[in-house]
Design brief:
The relative contact order is 0.12. The chain is elongated, with a radius of gyration of 27 Å. Helix 8 packs across helix 9 and helix 8 crosses helix 13. The chain is an alpha/beta fold. It folds into two domains: 161 residues, VC0802-like; 218 residues, Rossmann fold (3-Layer(aba) Sandwich), CATH 3.40.50. It is built from 13 helices and 16 strands. The strands form two sheets. Strands 1, 2, 3, 4, 5, 6, 7, 8 and 9 form a nine-stranded mixed beta sheet that branches. It has a seven-stranded mixed beta sheet with strand order 14-13-10-11-12-15-16, sandwiched between helices.
């Protein structure tokens, strides 16, 4: 009996004239994910199908579980679109399954098929009742859900379902630049941005010797977790030491975080232009810390005209932690290595900064050349999903 993996698109089906673009992007992403396996992939506007070797299914499933754009998928048995062939296949398949209650659901996409869906449900239900001892129909809470999709040429029968990541396939939007710290929030923000189809580069600000190499390695490990969804992440490491030292030497302590974030945003805009990113992405959550009040965000954001996406802005901490655990970044994020956003936190950072005072504090030192030097000297690490090592390139 031939089986295929049957993929349902979910949100992609809400697209109209450009649906084919999204489906083709998903097709290319799946093809890339499964390039090491002996598979054949074909698609239409409502479904995608993968022919595979049974021995590979576990490994293929691991890959598909990290592909955005898949709403749900099933392992389905293929049968000719013929009522007798479908009846025989259902009868044969249920013999090897242990269950006491069941339900049949038929989806008749091929409208030329002579039997309507409800009538098909009754026919197949009676076949099961007649050939399987001790079973009954339960339309509300069945132990076995028998689903049949009647399509032109071939029909598909399946009993299982696996939930995909949902969202849009990566690459259906232009690139974004993620401010990736070692904390809990920014990896979650990156994951949510990718779920909307945005491929990402990551940017990490370090201030050695005030921050450690362990802190950088922590961010590399977080990048590897995100790379599961896109195969490869470019992690741009910015040497922020001189800028941070100048800030803390010249600016009022209460304004140091505000000025530091404004410098980071300036650098992010330059890096986005350099690496063809259209938006800045970060893990800011409204009110969580002093630099994330609406007043602070407004003053900090003033330095850039580039759009800033904050995917977790309206999430509470527990919601963010739940997602971090789901994507397996939480245990890495809580490792005790400080980044440059936390290592110099003043006792009383300003909660409601003013733009006038921020500009006054910035005027106390010459930062333009420091910013340009940081951009020119960026070190890019290419982090790949399956690499046990990473290499500095570019």
């Amino acid at each position: 009996m031939k089986r295929v993996i049957l993929i349902k698109y979910g949100e992609l089906t809400t697209k109209k004239g450009n649906r084919n673009f999204f489906i083709h992007t998903l097709y290319q992403n799946i093809k890339n994910k499964l390039k090491k396996f002996d598979v054949t992939i074909y698609k239409d506007r409502s479904r995608m199908y993968i022919e595979f070797l049974d021995s590979d299914f576990h490994f293929i499933k691991e890959k598909l579980d990290c592909v955005f754009g898949i709403h749900m998928y099933h392992v389905a048995y293929i049968v000719d679109t013929n009522i007798d062939a479908i009846k025989d296949m259902v009868c044969q398949l249920v013999q090897d399954i242990s269950f006491s209650t069941f339900k049949v659901e038929t989806k008749r996409s091929d409208k030329s098929f002579p039997v309507h869906s409800q009538e098909m449900n009754r026919i197949l239900g009676s076949i099961v009742l007649k050939n399987k001892d001790g079973v009954t129909v339960d339309v509300h809470h069945p132990e076995l859900f028998i689903k049949v999709e009647v399509r032109e040429g071939h029909s598909y029968i399946y009993f299982n379902e696996y939930h995909g990541c949902g969202g849009y396939p990566i690459g259906s939007q232009p690139k974004g630049m993620l401010m990736l710290s070692g904390g809990i929030d920014s990896p979650v923000a990156g994951y949510l941005a990718m779920k909307r189809g945005i491929p990402i580069d990551c940017v990490y600000f370090e201030a050695i010797p005030h921050t450690s190499l362990e802190a950088r390695n922590k961010v590399v490990e977080l990048s590897k977790k995100l790379a599961k969804y896109s195969d490869e992440i470019h992690l741009h490491v910015v040497n922020f030491t001189k800028i941070q030292e100048e800030i803390y030497k010249n600016c009022h302590p209460n304004y140091c975080i505000t000025i530091m974030r404004r410098m980071m945003y300036r650098i992010m805009e330059k890096l986005a232009n350099k690496y063809h990113g259209l938006v800045i992405i970060n893990g800011e959550s409204i009110g969580q810390v002093a630099s994330q009040t609406l007043t602070s965000m407004s003053v900090i954001n003033e330095v850039t005209s580039m759009p800033v996406i904050r995917p977790v802005a309206c999430f509470d901490k527990l919601e963010i932690i739940d997602i971090a655990k789901k994507i397996d970044t939480y245990n890495i994020s809580i490792l005790p290595f400080e980044d440059c956003c936390t290592v110099f936190v003043p006792k009383h950072p300003v909660i409601n900064p003013t733009l006038e005072q921020a500009l006054k504090e910035e005027s106390k030192f010459e930062y333009e050349s420091l910013i340009q030097n940081a951009v020119d000297d960026v070190n890019t690490i290419v982090v790949k999903e399956e690499d046990s090592e990473f290499s500095d390139l570019l």
